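Quick bug: Aromatic ring-hydroxylating dioxygenase subunit alpha output formatted oddly.
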Amino acid sequence: MSIESSIWNQWYPLAVVEDLVDGRIYRTSLLGHEIRFGRDAEGHFSATRDDDGGSPCRTTTLYHTHWVCLGEPDAGFFQIAEFDEPDRRVLGAGSMKVHASGLRVVENFLDMAHFPYVHAGFLGAEPYTDISTYRVEVDQERDEILATDCRIFQPMAAAGSKQAIEAHYVYRVTRPFVAILYKTSPEQPERRDAICLFVQPLDEEWCIAHVVLAYVDATSSDRDLRLFQQTIFSQDLMILSNHLPRTLPLDPKFEIPTRADAMSSAYRRWLRDKGIRYGTYQPVQAAGGQP
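Here's what came back:
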């Protein structure tokens, strides 16, 4: 199938830096194409398309992640200022394969309403189930979506939490398959930890979610930081893997949104306005023209 240029020409993650061993070759898929990649003995990252005679891919390493573009990338790359702050802990929190469209995984990442039910005792708890009204806006200049003034009661907001807090969130979507969460740091409440979700679409119904942390946390071990995020993701995994359709519907009539779904609704509109079809649900048209 033909893939629209707005998807084909994006940068996509293939691996978090510490997950690769220098001198070893790895294989994966991206947008349905077979990719061979790795770092040489000097640590230089490269990738080739196995299904195109071994032609080289454009690559870059940024935000603790190795990226590939199969097409013609635009000149810029989204900015994450937290990676330039020297006191931050930067590490990969795992790369998880999911039987769902990468767009589904991003949308789930943006959803606070499920916290008290799916992440009870961690990111939410009953009876604190109401989601206060928050603001959503599209930054036209940067072509990004922002959700601000997001607040929710959390018994254990992070690995280093000592007590329950009302966590303040900012959600940011920079690309169709990239989302960043900024949330209250238990260690320094005036600052925000950054959790980056970089999604690699293997094809339209499978993806790998690469998670990278830029934390203000001087006490937790790397193991504890990773374990906390992997625990949260494993709780989401069962829901994502059983969600049908596996691709993301963009028609607002297909899955009715609520007030708490403001960011999800904005994300779907943003994808729709871009003409994104890859990884979205396209109803089969019957002979009479009705789905």
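Actually, after a second look the formatting is fine. Residues 87-282 form a domain with the Naphthalene 1,2-dioxygenase Alpha Subunit; Chain A, domain 1 fold (CATH 3.90.380.10). Closing.
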